[in-house]
Design goal:
The complex is a heterodimer. By secondary structure, chain A is an alpha+beta fold. Chain A is built from 15 helices and 27 strands. The chains are: A alpha+beta, B alpha+beta.
């Protein structure tokens, strides 16, 4: 989630109230306050509400919640008479487009910072790093309509923002910092997107960089917006959020004709919702009027439909991306009403709790191991083949589950055994008092199947085969496992001091125990003898298919 | 009148006291006492210290310094100082080159010259006269002359011929209290440490002096075998939920993107699905029967009042495998199988997120998840369950903040009040969206909540670093008391 920085003075001015009142409302409308500074508040909002990524948008919500200005904002759009045309060649590259003109904006520093913050946040949240949506804001007075959105050769040149000489679009991707950051979005294309004016002057190379020509400063009075992208919904939403935010900042919105479509369309969408369904979901008994009040607080347009007692007509503002279902409106009723004031109660749902058989089995294993004097550890299940196999002198298991894009080699596979993690913990605890006796139980994965195992290990100067044999005998007795023992050949153990545990019921080898091979000990940087065992539990204590 | 019971004396102390009492007016030497008691002198001093701490004797510590020859000094005392040996090795004169071959030449020539025993001219050494030097005499007659002048002693020490050694001796003397106690008679029979079976059965133990213990002396520390404190906390949560009538779930750590994301109405281009946030795996699993319903929900809302996400839903994307990023994937599979109300289920299991390890993040951690499905359930009931659960976990103050999760509506983040920290976010909750339940024919509300178990562990166990749970210091696990995770 992006962090939005809200200027105190600007926010107080837009809200018409003080910092204290603002701070009390913010959590109630879903803000997670990160930091409170003398001159600004850093806050996070959930990605379903990109309309709250500007100071103007937050102020609109706060005014509603405090009741100083409720209901929907009405936006009037006049016709600027300006036209835009899209070339056919852009349709396969970056086909969706939105634009508007904002006039008479009072661009002080706060408003510019808020717009830049909004643009940045929308690039990430809606634009997915400018891929789906990117936004350009231009000084309208430096260019001449009509405008043209099309695709051109990468050798076309212009002066990009923050540079003073013409370079080609291809060079922009190599030299300009923004070009390098976002080159991956366009570098595979034969032709690059571009927006030009009546005199062929370049406004923008979406989604990379604007031209220096249309740079916005504190003196700028009139703006031209361009929004381009690969997802129509996201492009329109970004345009609506920008326009409504700039209108709140004092601008006047004028429409533009893009081919034959007049935009922006800032009118609300309409939903008729059921009062009973809302009450049933929230556990309230609101009247239609209560619902209207709560919705107006949340800046919806709402009215009780007089023809139908049971329904409320809701006008959803054009900047709300998250209203997909009636329940989304009911959630806002709940927030408007106050989530903390909804009475919390326990229903009578008569059910009987049942422990999962695997969890019950693992609890018993833990109890038995602790009873034998062993201390439980809970190591990570992600590990690496060096610890799992190389250090253990074991062949790599063909059923090992590898992570496709690990962060670090240390944690690049899911464990196939637990014992190596115990030896690694002996290494970590090398300076601690002896004897050390550890156990661990939990998931391993083999051939994409999740199984459970238990491992125990003991280290001290006298740790030997007999000690571990006694532990196995006791553990298997406690857990009701019938077994026989045969000479083992696991290379992790000393030859002649290793044994396989054979499950009597199935005749399969379900574990190994013995004295750990000195070369293995050295590979784990352990100085003392270790006796250890590992035992498979799945298919022994419970059938394999117990897992969901 | 002083009671003999005031003193808890071991047999050794009593034996020493008895020996001292035999000659009450004398200063006793530990060596002599040791011979008498058949104990090494060090042990006698130890017993005397114990008696002295009870005021029964006094100990005088005497430090004396004596001078002895060093190994080198011993050698020269026998064969003469190097300059004397060298002087005696030639007649009246000798070539310097020749004398230099003598093993003692390096030390000796300088000293002979300094003492004026020789003259050196044109590379030839000629004897003058060599009266015995004071050093020679001092060294030879060391034992006769214990009162060497300090200056002279320093010179010998500086040449490394003698050294000072410090010897400590003790004089032990019985005190009047000791005499009184001894006069009352001391039981000098052998004391018993452990009773034998024979002594217990025969009753002979009644006649035997049992050694008393100093009960204030701390014992040797021992530690029980132990279930990890974090597992104990997990078990506490399991018991709370089982007692609230929830059935426990358990499942595969490998999940298809279908169950982990698509079935939970996460759009296919949601950032959490990307490789930066999720551990993707090789291989694929076909979506289950009924997957078309999920596709329709994503594309246009299916049979519900939802608009869906729009666009195209790709079944291939849903086949990819991931390490489960939450246990919610198990909840929805449970609902798909058990659509008849009521259902209450929970799961505490490890989940995987592609995060680098630092004190507050680990790529794997435990998540708790609970769901309740029944007719007539409301968001108020969800808050009821949350309050109940958190109260039982020891968090009295709970509040709710609006939140967003793709699969619940309404959604909240419960926050609990922790002294010293303020409001701490402790999970997420909501009512499953119709887009999640409808494809499986579940028609009544499903309440769901999730909780980061490791965050609770950090709060309850006062941990600063999550890694302590997974890469534990054995001493920490050994010494962490059971009661500290066991609730209030």
């Amino acid at each position: 989630m992006p962090i939005i920085s809200l200027s105190n003075t600007y926010l107080e001015r837009l809200c018409g109230t003080d910092k204290k009142a603002i701070l009390s409302v913010l959590p109630k409308i879903g803000s997670d306050i990160e930091r409170i500074e003398d001159n600004h508040i850093d806050t996070e909002f959930f990605p379903n509400r990109p309309d709250l990524y500007s100071t103007e948008g937050v102020a609109r919500a706060i005014r509603g919640y405090l009741g100083t200005e409720t209901g929907e904002e009405i936006y009037t759009i006049t016709d600027s008479g300006i036209t835009f045309s899209l070339d056919e060649n852009i349709r396969t590259i970056r086909p969706y487009f939105g634009t508007a003109v904002i006039r008479d904006i009072n661009f002080d520093n706060d408003a510019i910072l808020s717009l830049m913050g909004l643009q940045e946040a929308l690039h990430w949240v809606l634009g997915r790093g400018r891929k789906k949506v990117s936004i350009g804001v231009h000084n309208f007075d430096s260019v001449t309509p009509p405008f043209f959105y099309h695709a051109v050769s990468p050798d076309t040149s212009f002066v990009p923002l923050d540079m003073d000489e013409e370079i080609t679009m291809r060079e922009i991707l190599e030299i300009h910092p923004k070009g390098r950051d976002y080159a991956h979005i366009v570098s595979h294309l034969e032709k690059f997107p571009i927006i030009t004016d009546a005199h062929d002057q370049v406004l923008s190379f979406p989604p990379i960089i604007n031209g220096e020509l249309t740079k916005v400063t504190e003196e700028t009075k009139n703006l031209l917006l361009d929004v381009t992208g690969t997802d129509q919904r996201a492009v329109i939403l970004a345009l609506n959020i920008l326009c409504t935010s700039l209108i709140s900042a004092g601008g006047r919105c004028e429409g533009v004709r893009v081919d034959d479509v007049f935009m922006p369309d800032l009118s609300p969408s309409v939903r008729s919702v059921s009062v009973a369904e809302c009450n049933a979901l929230l556990g309230l008994s609101l009247t239609p009027k209560d619902m209207v009040v709560a919705l107006e607080k949340m800046r919806f347009g709402a009215e009780h439909n007089p023809e139908c007692e049971e329904r409320v007509l809701v006008r959803v503002p054009c900047y709300r991306a998250d209203i997909m279902h009636d329940w989304d409106i009911f959630e806002d009723v709940g927030i408007g009403y106050g989530l903390d004031t909804i009475p919390a109660s326990l229903p009578h749902v008569a059910t009987i709790g049942v422990e999962h058989p695997i969890m019950r089995a693992l609890s018993r294993v833990r109890m038995a191991c602790a009873g034998l004097g062993y201390i439980e550890v809970m190591p990570f299940t992600l590990t690496n083949t060096r610890i799992l196999f190389d250090a253990m002198q074991r062949p790599h298991h063909p059923g090992t589950l590898s992570i496709l894009h690990p962060i670090r080699e240390e944690q690049s596979v899911f464990r196939t055994d637990i014992l190596p993690s115990l030896l690694d913990l002996f290494r970590i605890n090398k300076r601690r008092e002896l004897p050390q006796r550890l156990f661990s139980t939990g998931d391993v994965v083999l051939h994409e199947v999740t199984l459970q195992k238990v491992a125990l290990a003991s280290t001290h100067p006298g740790a030997d085969f007999s000690e571990m044999y006694a532990v196995i005998a006791s553990l298997c007795h406690e857990l009701g496992i019938a077994y026989t023992v045969q000479e083992g050949s696991d290379p992790a153990f000393i030859p002649g001091r290793a044994a396989d545990i054979v499950h009597t019921d199935t005749g399969t080898v379900i574990g190994q125990f013995g004295e750990i091979h000195p070369d293995v000990l050295r590979a784990f940087d352990i100085d003392q003898p270790v006796a250890a065992v590992e035992l498979t539990l799945s298919g022994v204590l419970y059938p394999l298919e117990e897992a969901l | 009148m002083m009671s003999p019971m005031r003193y808890e004396l071991s047999l050794n102390e009593k034996r020493l006291l008895a020996a001292l009492a035999e000659l009450p007016n004398e200063q006793h030497d530990p060596v002599d006492l040791g011979n008498k008691l058949s104990s090494p002198p060090e042990s006698v001093i130890q017993y005397a210290n114990l008696l002295s701490s009870k005021g029964l004797c006094t100990i005088e510590r005497i430090v004396s310094i004596s001078v002895v020859r060093t190994e080198e000094g011993e050698l020269y005392a026998r064969y003469g100082l190097p300059e004397r040996q060298l002087y005696n090795s030639f007649d009246t004169s000798i070539e310097m080159n020749q004398l230099n071959r003598h093993p003692l030449a390096r030390i000796g020539i300088g000293w002979m010259r300094r003492l004026g025993w020789i003259t050196i001219q044109d590379g030839v050494i000629t004897k003058t006269d060599a009266p015995p030097s004071d050093l020679e005499q001092g060294l030879l007659r060391l034992h006769e002359h214990l009162n060497l002048s300090e200056h002279f002693k320093r010179r010998l020490i500086k040449r490394g011929l003698i050294q000072e050694i410090e010897t400590i001796s003790y004089k032990i003397h019985i005190s009047p209290d000791g005499q009184n106690l001894a006069a009352q008679g001391l039981d000098l029979r052998e004391e018993l440490g452990t009773l034998t079976s024979e002594q217990i059965i025969s009753g002979s133990w009644k006649e035997l002096p049992l050694r008393k213990y100093d009960v204030t002396k701390p014992p040797k520390r021992i530690f029980p075998g132990k279930i990890h404190p974090y597992q104990q906390l997990i078990d506490e949560m399991r018991h709370i939920l089982l007692s609230m009538g929830f059935t426990e779930l358990h499942g595969d750590v490998i999940q298809s993107a279908f169950w982990n994301f698509d079935a939970l109405f996460q759009p296919q281009d949601h950032p959490a699905r990307e490789m930066q946030d999720t551990f993707h795996l090789a291989g694929s699993r076909s979506p289950p029967d009924g997957w078309e319903q999920v596709r329709d929900i994503h594309e246009h809302g299916g049979q519900t009042s939802s608009t869906g996400w729009g666009g195209h839903w790709d079944p291939e994307v849903s086949k990819g495998l991931v390490l489960r990023t939450h246990t919610t994937c198990l909840s929805v599979q449970t609902l798909a199988k058990n659509r008849v109300p009521p259902q209450k289920a929970f799961c505490i299991g490890r989940v995987y997120r592609r995060e680098a390890i630092d004190p507050t993040h680990t790529p794997e951690f435990e998540q708790l998840e609970g769901i309740v499905m029944d007719e007539g359930l409301t968001f108020g009931h969800l808050m009821g369950y949350l309050r109940e659960f958190y109260t039982r976990m020891g968090f009295e103050s709970v509040r709710f903040r609006p939140a967003y999760f793709p699969y619940t509506e309404p959604s909240v983040e419960p926050e609990v009040y922790v002294e010293g920290l303020g409001w701490v976010e402790l999970g997420g909750a909501g009512v499953f969206r119709e887009e999640v339940t409808a494809p499986w024919g579940v028609s009544c509300p499903v309440l769901a909540w999730g909780l980061g178990v490791s965050r609770v562990a950090m709060l309850r166990m006062n941990l600063r670093d999550l890694r302590e749970l997974y890469q534990s210091d054995i001493d920490w696990v050994k010494s962490y008391p059971l009661i500290s995770t066991g609730g209030l």
